[in-house]
């Protein structure tokens, strides 16, 4: 899905267990007008919808019952490379925490 041109601004941050974290607009200048930043939120919502459709198709074709819960938030984050032995890119902040809480308390098959 991330190979689609319309999702080129979305980057995978990390996976932890069954949790997949992605972000949009991380490398963009945050001093832009509201239009482009809200566009990133729209892209994330579209990405989540496509992910849900793809998972549904996989479930139908493979007779599995994988489930999906999604949490999305919009706002500033701190981003950088952390780790001395195994450096990796990550994001932090209240925006990330709220999205994580939305996902963990959400209903299966829904986005909040």
From TrEMBL:
GO terms for molecular function: adenylate cyclase activity; ATP binding; metal ion binding. It catalyses: ATP = 3',5'-cyclic AMP + diphosphate. Signal peptide: none annotated. Keywords: ATP-binding, cAMP biosynthesis, Lyase, Magnesium, Membrane, Metal-binding, Nucleotide-binding, Transmembrane, Transmembrane helix. Residues 1-103 form the Guanylate cyclase domain. It comes from the Eukaryota. It is a multi-pass membrane protein. GO terms for biological process: adenylate cyclase-activating G protein-coupled receptor signaling pathway; cAMP biosynthetic process; intracellular signal transduction. Its EC number is 4.6.1.1. It is found in: Membrane. Its cofactor is Mg(2+). It is an enzyme of class 4 (lyase). Belongs to the adenylyl cyclase class-4/guanylyl cyclase family. This is adenylate cyclase. It comes from Bracon brevicornis.
């Amino acid at each position: 899905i991330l190979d689609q041109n319309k999702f080129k601004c979305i980057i995978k941050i990390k996976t932890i267990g069954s949790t997949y974290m992605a972000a949009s607009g991380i490398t963009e200048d945050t001093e832009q007008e509201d239009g482009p930043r809200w566009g990133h939120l729209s892209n994330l919502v579209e990405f989540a919808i496509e992910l849900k459709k793809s998972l549904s198709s996989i479930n139908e074709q493979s007779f599995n019952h994988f489930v999906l819960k999604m949490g999305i938030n919009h706002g500033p984050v701190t981003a950088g490379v952390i780790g001395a032995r195994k450096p990796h890119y990550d994001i932090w902040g209240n925006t990330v925490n709220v999205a994580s809480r939305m996902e963990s308390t959400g209903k299966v098959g829904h986005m909040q």
